[in-house]
Every structure is written in C-alpha cells, then in structure tokens.
Specification:
mainly beta; three-stranded parallel beta sheet; 12 strands
Length: about 170
C-alpha cells in the first residue's frame, strides 16, 4: 500500500510476501504507511486481525509507527522464533502453524496459535476469504481464513499460465 491513509481499515488478511519480486520492496509483507504532517502522528490506517508473513519488516514509512494495530500476528519467514517488536498490541509472533506455506496453503492447522486470537468484527464482515461464515460471537481466528477441519473446495491461489497460453 503506497498512499497516504486516513480512516482506512485493513482487516482479516493474510499477507504473505517472502519471495523476491525484483524490486526494492522485496522485503516482504510490507505496508508503506506515509504521508501527512507532522511525521510521527497517527496515520489513520488501522490494521486488525492480520497475519503478516515477511522476510524483513512488515511496516515501513515515516508514519508506520503511528499505524493503529490491533490483534495482528507476525511471522518472519524461515525464522519462526523471531519476535516482532514493532507492535505493542499484537496478538503474537512466531510460527502461525499453517498447512503448507511453501505451497501457498494458508489454512490454519488445528493447533495454530492464531485460533481465537482476533477481535470479532461481525458488525462489518460475515464470511472469510473462502466464503465460510464467520462467528457472530466470540473471538475470531487471525488472518483471512478461519480454521475449519473441512478441506477447501478450490485452490486459493490462481494457477500460473505459461507465456504460450496468453
């Protein structure tokens, strides 16, 4: 996100960016929170119930310290023991216990520490990324996908097409 943000809510996401993209933003799962004066004041960008999987730092920019953060989880790629220190309101950091990160299967395992750690935003959202109903009461799971023992009905990531099929 590269824009001045005020009154913006970024809720219930799984942000997994740990592979290089050939740009200076290769740092992974990075949200550039900038703009406005004075520098250091709250940015008006709210981050709630998000899972950040990153390789460098999840936030950057002159106002990233002022981003309003609630119940987020941070996982440094290939360093599951790393604790993120830039969010005093975080739900936690470390290994999120996903099915298969390398294959982009971001579903939570039954023993995931993200289960029941997010705030309930049922007044705003009714379904998760997979279209499954979100609980009307009680805490939610962090990230875009609520835990379910059922297998998903379709791939969560688009298939890559070869250059010949374009």
């Amino acid at each position: 996100m590269l824009a001045p943000c005020t009154g913006i809510y970024f809720d219930n996401n799984t942000i997994a960016r740990y592979n290089g993209f050939g740009r200076s933003q290769n740092a992974g799962a990075r949200l550039d929170v900038r703009g406005g004066n004075p520098v250091g004041k709250p940015s008006g960008a709210h981050f709630r119930n998000n899972l950040f999987i990153y390789s460098s730092s999840p936030y950057s920019g002159n106002r990233s310290g002022g981003a309003l953060k609630t119940a987020n989880w941070y996982s440094k790629h290939q360093s599951p023991g790393t604790k993120y220190k830039g969010d005093s309101n975080q739900a936690g950091s470390g290994d999120p216990r996903l099915f298969d990160l390398e294959s982009q299967d971001y579903r939570l395992k039954a023993d995931s520490p993200l289960r029941g750690q997010a705030i309930n935003l049922s007044e705003l959202y009714k379904t998760d990324f997979n279209g499954r109903p979100l609980p009307a009461t009680g805490n939610w799971d962090i990230g875009a996908i609520q835990y379910s023992a059922a297998k998903p009905g379709k791939a969560m990531q688009p298939e890559r097409r070869s250059a010949a099929s374009k």
